[in-house]
Specification:
The structure is a single chain. By secondary structure, the protein is mainly α. The chain has 13 helices and 2 strands. Helix 8 packs antiparallel against helix 9. The longest helix is centred in the N-terminal third of the chain and has 25 residues. This is Membrane associated serine protease, rhomboid family.
C-alpha cells in the first residue's frame, strides 16, 4: 500500500525528525481508536482499559515498576481528538522553529527529555505531596510535557520571535510561553493537577536545556547516544571502532582549535540591525546560526 510506503519513507529519512514525532503520535492514536472500535463491536469494550494501561503512565509506583516503558510511551498517547490536535499543532509550530535553529537531533532530545522529566515530576508529586496522595493511581497521557519543553526552549532561545495568531495578531513567543505556564498552574487546582505538574516539569527542562546549550553543554547527548545504540541494534549495523596509531607529541605551540569560530562583532551588529528592520524571520539559516554562536560568548 502507498500509505505504508509513505510511512516507511518518512522514518527512513534522517532530516525528518519533526514529521516523525508527529507521525508516531498519530499512529498510536489511530491504533488505539481502531482497537477500541473492534473491542466495542465484539462486546469486549471493558478490555480496552487493559490495552490503554500498556501506554499511559501510572502514578502509583508498583504499577510503574510493572510498566516502566510507560515513562516514555505516555508522551505519544492520546484519547480525545482535540487533545491530540492541539498538542500536535503546538508541536508543529514550535518544533519547526527549534528544528530550524538547533537541528533534528536536538529537537528529538528536547521532546524525549521533556516527556521524561514531566513524567518523573508527575510520579514524585503524587507520591510525595500529601494533597495528591489520595489520588495515587491517576494516570498521565499526552504529549503536553514534551511539547511544553519545546515551547519553553523556543521562547528561551528566541524570546522576541513573533507568531501571528488567529484573531489576535502578532505575539512574541515569550508571552505565549508565559501563557502556557499560567494555564498549567491553573490546571493544578482546576481538576487536572497531574497534567499541570507534568507541563511545568517539561517547561523547566526546556529552559535548562537552552541555558546549558548556550553554556556549551548539551543535555541531550545521553538521549542521542541511546537512540543511536538502539538504531544500530535494530538495523544490525555494527558499532565502528576507530584505532589510532601513536604519534609523536606535537609542539606546545601547535595548539589545535576545537571551538567553533565566533562570528565577528560587525556581522552580529549587522544581523541585529536586520532583525530590527525586517524581523527575525528575514534571517537566513547561516545568520541564525551565527547569532546563536554569538550568544554562547
Amino acid at each position: 500500500m502507498s500509505i505504508v510506503n509513505d510511512i516507511r519513507t518518512a522514518f527512513s529519512r534522517r532530516d525528518n525528525a519533526l514529521n516523525q514525532l508527529l507521525l508516531i503520535n498519530v499512529l498510536v492514536f489511530v491504533f488505539l481508536v481502531l482497537v477500541k472500535a473492534v473491542l466495542w463491536l465484539s462486546g469486549f469494550q471493558p478490555y480496552f482499559a487493559n490495552v490503554l494501561r500498556q501506554f499511559v503512565l501510572p502514578s502509583d509506583l508498583p504499577a510503574l515498576l510493572r510498566h516502566p516503558w510507560t515513562l516514555l510511551t505516555y508522551a505519544f498517547t492520546h484519547e480525545g481528538f482535540f487533545h491530540i490536535f492541539f498538542n500536535l499543532l503546538n508541536l508543529y509550530w514550535f518544533g519547526a522553529l527549534v528544528r530550524e535553529y538547533l537541528g533534528d537531533r536536538r529537537l528529538v532530545s528536547l521532546y524525549i527529555l521533556g516527556a521524561l522529566v514531566g513524567g518523573v515530576v508527575f510520579v514524585l508529586a503524587f507520591n510525595l505531596l500529601p494533597v495528591l496522595r489520595p489520588a495515587v493511581g491517576t494516570p498521565l497521557l499526552g504529549a503536553s510535557a514534551g511539547v511544553t519543553a519545546i515551547v519553553m526552549a523556543a521562547a528561551t532561545l528566541l524570546p522576541e520571535y513573533t507568531f501571528s495568531l488567529f484573531l489576535i495578531g502578532p505575539v512574541r513567543i515569550k508571552y505565549i510561553a508565559a501563557f502556557v505556564i499560567l494555564i498549567s498552574v491553573i490546571a493544578i487546582n482546576q481538576g487536572n493537577p497531574g497534567g499541570g505538574i507534568a507541563h511545568i516539569g517539561g517547561a523547566l527542562l526546556g529552559f535548562l536545556f537552552i541555558r546549558q546549550l548556550q553554556a556549551g553543554r548539551d543535555l541531550g547527548r545521553p538521549v542521542l547516544a541511546i537512540g543511536d545504540w538502539v538504531g544500530n541494534l535494530v538495523s544490525g549495523r555494527p558499532n565502528l571502532r576507530v584505532s589510532h596509531r601513536s604519534r609523536p607529541a606535537e609542539a606546545p605551540t601547535a595548539t589545535r582549535k576545537t571551538a567553533p569560530i565566533k562570528p565577528e562583532q560587525e556581522e552580529i551588529d549587522g544581523i541585529l540591525d536586520k532583525i530590527s528592520r525586517s524581523g527575525y524571520e528575514s534571517l537566513s539559516k547561516e545568520e541564525k546560526q551565527k547569532l546563536f554562536k554569538a550568544s554562547q560568548k
